[in-house]
Design brief:
Blueprint (H helix, E strand, L loop, with lengths): L1 H15 L4 H41 L4 H7 L2 H21 L4 H35 L9 H25 L3 H10 L1 H7 L1 H15 L8 E4 L4 E8 L3 E6 L4 E5 L2 H4 L3 E2 L1 H6 L2 E9 L9 H8 L5 H17 L15 H14 L11 E4 L7 E9 L4 H18 L13 H15 L1
Antiparallel strand pairs: 1-2, 1-5, 2-3, 3-4, 6-8, 7-8
Helix pairs in contact: 1-2, 2-4, 4-5, 5-6, 6-7
Length: 426
């Protein structure tokens, strides 16, 4: 072999120049190791240049994108590193061939290094597979990060045990047996990982959450789109562009709101109330009814309602001379009918879903009159604009029904009251 001959020639040369046998042998070994490393470095550079550039040209010409991902994730770069490492350790083993103790140690180190590089290549390849599967429509809503992280952990543990067995020169089963005795410790160390994996499976199996869903979890300050689901955490990009990190298992153990149903239906709920001053609620006078008949969307309603109430009172021979007798129309009821018809004619309200204008229980702040409907535009800005337009109109038109909005007294109200009292005193 060339290395054996070089070693013998160099040892003989160093001894000829006056060095002792030990120093001559030591310098020879060092020089051979340095030369091996330099050659390995040159081979590494050459392989990376040829392998990566060659595959890059092929990737540019191909119509698929998986080969581009192999280059992007540096898979070929890792493979290129593997050959020079094997070459270096092969030569170093030959250099230490006459030193059994060192030879055995170098052999173990080379095998461990080979396993380590193989693990890096495998992990990078799994990253490529993860990206490819993420582009498949049927996998887009699955927690792929969780599955691939778990797969990497399992592979890492298996290869880690293999490296330990190589280093200690013991059987792989010996270490797996030792791990069996350490199960309790492993469960404690990997508790979050195990819980996260179980949660990921449950979330996926029950279709509770997907990447891209709008979720709301007040406990963790999360309110936005899910951007990543992995073994231990779920990342949510909030509407203020901050990122909230929520433990995956919390989506199983705690309550949260998923707005996916709204997006699938294509309608977003409007449920807001205005507070009516209860002192302004009254029965309608004939003059007020005539005023209501001039409102286009109310004319038919008022006429039909008048006929219905007149017939009801006549059939029961009710004396309508007293206001409290019989059935009468109120300004609040007519206002509710107006808002209902206004919503039924609104182009941005989904007519196939629930539309209500209802009274809520009275409070110290007046009588809440709630508009309950669904906007057919779920884009946030558009939805808010539609909702605002509806309530702008309701607040502006309410005085035509002789109703007023309840509003707590402000400083200006008290100043006006004080001014009025002073004038009366004078």
């Amino acid at each position: 072999m060339i290395i054996h001959k070089l070693r013998q020639d160099w040892i003989a040369y160093f001894q000829e120049v006056g060095l002792s046998a030990f120093l001559a042998e030591l310098l020879t070994v060092l020089f051979l190791i340095i030369i091996s490393i330099i050659i390995g470095f040159l081979v590494d550079r050459l392989l990376r240049l040829t392998l990566i550039s060659g595959f890059s040209r092929l990737a540019d010409k191909s119509k698929t994108d998986w080969d581009d991902l192999l280059i992007e994730k540096n898979v070929f770069s890792a493979i290129a590193h593997l050959a020079p490492v094997i070459l270096i350790f092969y030569w170093i083993q030959l250099i230490f061939d006459d030193y059994p103790a060192w030879h055995d140690f170098i052999l173990r180190i080379s095998r461990i290094t080979l396993v380590s590089f193989s693990m890096v290549i495998l992990f990078r390849f799994l990253d490529v597979v993860r990206v490819i599967l993420g582009r498949v429509e049927s996998f887009k809503d699955k927690p792929l990060d969780s599955y691939f992280q778990l797969l990497k952990i399992v592979i890492g543990i298996v290869l880690g045990v293999l490296m330990l067995s190589i280093l200690a020169n013991k059987s792989v089963m010996y270490f797996f047996g030792a791990f069996g005795a350490m199960t309790a410790v492993l469960l404690l160390v990997f508790k979050d990982t195990i819980l996260g994996f179980i949660a990921s499976i449950q979330l996926s199996a029950n279709d509770m959450i997907r990447v891209g869903d709008w979720v709301q979890m007040d406990k963790y300050g999360a309110d936005g789109d899910v951007i990543q689901i992995n073994l231990t955490t779920v990342k949510v990009r909030n509407w203020d562009k901050t990122i909230s990190t929520v433990p995956t298992y919390s989506f199983i153990s705690d309550s949260f709101k998923n707005w996916r149903g709204m997006e699938e239906i294509g309608a977003r709920r409007i449920a807001r109330a205005i507070n009516i001053d209860q002192h302004t609620i009254k029965f309608c006078t004939p003059e007020l009814l005539e005023k209501f008949k001039k409102i286009h969307i109310l004319k038919g309603y008022v006429e039909e309602k008048e006929e219905e109430l007149k017939k009801y009172n006549e059939e029961r021979k009710i004396d309508t001379g007293e206001v409290s007798n019989g059935r009468r129309m109120t300004n609040l009821g007519t206002f509710r009918a107006y808002l209902f018809r206004y919503l039924k004619n609104h182009p941005k309200i989904d007519q196939d879903l629930t539309i209500l204008v209802r009274q809520l229980p009275p409070t110290e702040n007046g009588l809440p009159l709630q508009i309950y409907a669904f906007c057919n535009d779920i884009a946030w800005a558009n939805y808010e604009a539609v909702q605002s337009d509806i309530f702008d109109h309701a607040l502006a038109v309410i005085e035509q029904f002789d109703l007023k909005i309840f509003q707590s007294p402000s400083g200006t109200n008290f100043q006006n009251l004080t001014g009025s009292l002073k004038k009366e005193v004078k």
